[in-house]
């Protein structure tokens, strides 16, 4: 049974299942979900909590033995297994089957880890477990939904925040919900019982937004030039190894080349490349402006960067990367885009 994050508190009023699965790529909300479940279980008499990590030496039999062992401290146990790679293996599949078959099992099993793709939720082990479990998927909050999330935080802390200040907070904390929650709590202490405007936020908050190379990939494909500049500057400031960024750009070029050569087999090729439905629109948009010669130019630029960076070094590798990102724009405003990069980042 699928239970979304914003439904969890209400769902916890219902009888608990044998298993709760919490998987996702947003660490703050995942931690919030796990903490809510743990707190509820403690109130329900689960006085003993055990945690396992499914590393290479892990045995699922240990979990089953623990569930069947008598305890001097608690009759009900909360048992957690971090399933990092979302692959329980044959032993794990058998364990899930045995666990769900125990009729007098008073214990609760929590299985949690990173995001599950569509293919993983179609596996036999997941489908069987889902019959006896709550599945709580935890997703990254999209930029368009971030204002609603902040409004909830403001209400929780009884804050009166102007729309301009709220918009600024969205820009500052995109991709960093943990930092956002901390700053909202801090604002409630700094400005109690008063309206918080944009100047208040600027005075109290520093820019904690975190962007990843994968976010950069989406904005490069969508041709969001100003966002690309912002992300590259931040990655440069965080001293991320440049080859990680160029690896991502190379992957996107390879995907675009294969989609270009696929002709009218776009959907089939996306499936082959594991491009999910929510990203297809980005590739379609990129293919409207990028043809085969332009993609080959980007490939050549990436190859030149790799040779120069590994053989002799580059004084300002991120400026070089910025020019490569500019090639993805492929229009008459390319010169203006590159000039913006130079003005923002400087050229040695």
TrEMBL record:
GO cellular component, one term: DNA polymerase III complex
The DNA polymerase III delta N-terminal domain, residue ranges: 22-136
Enzyme Commission number(s) from the entry: 2.7.7.7
InterPro entries: DNA_pol3_clamp-load_cplx_C, DNA_pol3_delt_C, DNA_pol3_delta_N, DNA_polIII_delta, P-loop_NTPase
Key words, A-Z: DNA replication, DNA-directed DNA polymerase, Nucleotidyltransferase, Transferase
Catalysed reaction equations from the record: DNA(n) + a 2'-deoxyribonucleoside 5'-triphosphate = DNA(n+1) + diphosphate
Any Gene Ontology biological process: DNA-templated DNA replication
Matches recorded under Gene3D superfamilies: 1.10.8.60, 1.20.272.10, P-loop containing nucleotide triphosphate hydrolases
GO molecular function annotation: DNA binding; DNA-directed DNA polymerase activity
Domain DNA polymerase III subunit delta C-terminal positions: 218-311
A Pfam family: DNA_pol3_delta
Family (UniProt): Belongs to the DNA polymerase HolA subunit family.
PANTHER family associated with the record: DNA POLYMERASE III SUBUNIT DELTA
Name of this protein: DNA polymerase III subunit delta
Organism: Catenovulum agarivorans DS-2
């Amino acid at each position: 049974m699928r239970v979304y994050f914003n439904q969890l508190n209400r769902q916890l009023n219902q009888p608990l299942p044998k298993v709760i699965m919490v998987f996702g790529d947003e660490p703050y909300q995942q931690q919030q979900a796990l903490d809510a479940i743990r707190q509820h279980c403690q109130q329900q008499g689960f006085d003993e909590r055990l945690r396992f990590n499914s590393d290479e030496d892990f045995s699922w039999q240990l979990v089953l033995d623990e569930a069947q062992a008598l305890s001097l401290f608690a009759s009900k146990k909360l048992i957690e297994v971090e399933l990092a790679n979302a692959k329980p293996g044959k032993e794990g599949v058998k364990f899930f089957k045995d666990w769900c078959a125990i009729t007098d099992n008073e214990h609760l099993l929590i299985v949690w880890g990173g995001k599950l793709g569509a293919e993983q939720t179609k596996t036999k082990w997941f489908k069987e477990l889902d019959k006896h479990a709550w599945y709580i998927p935890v997703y990254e909050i999209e930029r368009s939904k971030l204002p609603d999330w902040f409004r909830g935080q403001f209400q929780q802390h009884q804050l009166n925040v102007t729309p301009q200040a709220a918009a600024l907070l969205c820009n500052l904390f995109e991709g960093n919900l943990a930092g956002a929650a901390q700053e909202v709590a801090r604002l409630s202490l700094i400005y109690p019982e008063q309206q918080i405007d944009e100047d208040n936020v600027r005075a109290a908050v520093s820019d904690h937004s975190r962007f990843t190379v994968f976010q950069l990939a989406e904005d490069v494909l969508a041709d969001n030039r100003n966002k690309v500049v912002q992300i590259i500057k931040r990655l440069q400031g965080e001293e991320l190894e440049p080859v990680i960024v160029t690896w991502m750009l190379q992957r996107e070029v390879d995907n675009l080349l294969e989609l270009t050569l696929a002709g009218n087999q776009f959907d089939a090729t996306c499936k082959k490349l594991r491009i999910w439905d929510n990203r297809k629109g980005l590739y379609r948009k990129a293919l409207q402006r990028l043809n085969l010669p332009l993609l080959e130019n980007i490939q050549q630029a990436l190859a030149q960067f790799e040779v120069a960076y590994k053989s002799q070094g580059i004084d300002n590798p991120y400026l070089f990367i910025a020019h490569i990102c500019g090639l993805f724009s492929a229009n008459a405003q390319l010169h203006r885009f590159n000039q913006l990069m130079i003005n923002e980042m400087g050229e040695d």
